[in-house]
């Protein structure tokens, strides 16, 4: 049995502030071992539960944050960026039985510690078929297309609430309780590692592949914080304006839908000006 861990950093133990997750800062360096501790604990829990392989896919920023040398020797880690399925790269390899979202967070426009959807500020809302979408919700739809269940979600308490919507069966671990976008009541890495390992062990029983879900068509609407970003997004074929700061497009599969999403975010981030957005 093989488990894929998609590891994002905003929802990691102890993380509440932009510098905590901004590669190159001293504070990011300080938080990397706590992020690694969460991932390490999840992997150990899956092995405890009977998994014989764990692939960790780095899913934050430049996708080089975790400390490989602190992971269990049975773990393999996919590090670095430019991957077909981005945050859930690996699920398409055909041998994954369950996916864990570790260090996840709530979506743009929602309450939650460091809440955002892919771009930290420029995107103010994302909707999938009319429902407000977090990264967790979007990626859960992607993995469903491969017939792989989401079995574990970790992050702040509001991330766990969000996951009730897209992965009701999954085990959830809140490593911190939301106070504001930049504040949380945090539990120590020792405590959260124990909680995550125990939950992952239980979650292993949920790692049973099912018939792939063909749920399309998928309509994604995005709202930006500035009009010119919506205009920039329409460079991507199929993306059309739906309002002053909004665009939408429709994909027939989630594979296509998430890849178009990636094209939109890549073009939009290139159009952001440093001071004025
Ligand atoms: Zn994220």
TrEMBL record:
Catalytic residue positions: 116 (nucleophile)
GO MF term (any one): metal ion binding
Gene3D superfamilies: Dipeptide transport protein (3.40.50.10780)
Residue positions binding Zn(2+) 1: 8, 10
Domain of life: Bacteria
Binding-site positions, Zn(2+) 2: 8, 60, 105, 135
UniProt keyword list: Metal-binding, Zinc
Protein's recorded name: Peptide ABC transporter substrate-binding protein
Organism: Streptomyces solincola
Native organism taxonomy: Bacteria, Bacillati, Actinomycetota, Actinomycetes, Kitasatosporales
């Amino acid at each position: 049995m093989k488990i894929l861990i998609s590891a994002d950093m905003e929802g990691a133990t102890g993380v509440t502030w932009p510098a905590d997750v901004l590669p190159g800062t001293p504070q990011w360096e300080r938080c990397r071992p706590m992020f690694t501790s969460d991932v390490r604990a999840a992997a150990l829990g899956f092995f405890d539960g009977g998994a014989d392989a764990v692939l960790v896919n780095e899913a934050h920023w430049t996708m080089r944050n975790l400390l490989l040398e602190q992971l269990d020797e049975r773990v393999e880690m996919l590090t670095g960026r430019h991957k077909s399925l981005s945050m859930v790269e690996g699920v398409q390899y055909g041998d994954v039985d369950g996916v864990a979202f570790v260090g996840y967070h709530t979506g743009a426009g929602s309450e939650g510690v460091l809440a955002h959807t892919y771009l930290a500020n420029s995107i103010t809302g994302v909707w999938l078929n009319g429902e407000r979408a977090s990264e967790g919700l979007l990626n859960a739809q992607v993995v469903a297309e491969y017939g792989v269940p989401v079995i574990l979600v970790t992050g702040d308490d509001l991330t766990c609430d969000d996951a009730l919507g897209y992965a009701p069966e999954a085990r959830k671990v809140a490593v911190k309780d939301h106070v504001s976008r930049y504040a949380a009541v945090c539990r120590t890495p020792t405590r959260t590692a124990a909680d995550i390992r125990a939950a992952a062990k239980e979650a292993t029983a949920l790692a049973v592949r099912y018939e792939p879900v063909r749920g399309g068509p998928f309509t994604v609407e995005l709202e930006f914080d500035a009009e010119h970003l919506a205009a920039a997004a329409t460079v991507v074929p199929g993306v059309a304006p739906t309002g002053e700061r909004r665009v939408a497009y429709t994909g027939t599969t989630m594979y296509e839908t998430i890849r178009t999403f990636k094209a939109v975010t890549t073009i939009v981030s290139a159009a952001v000006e440093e001071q004025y957005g």
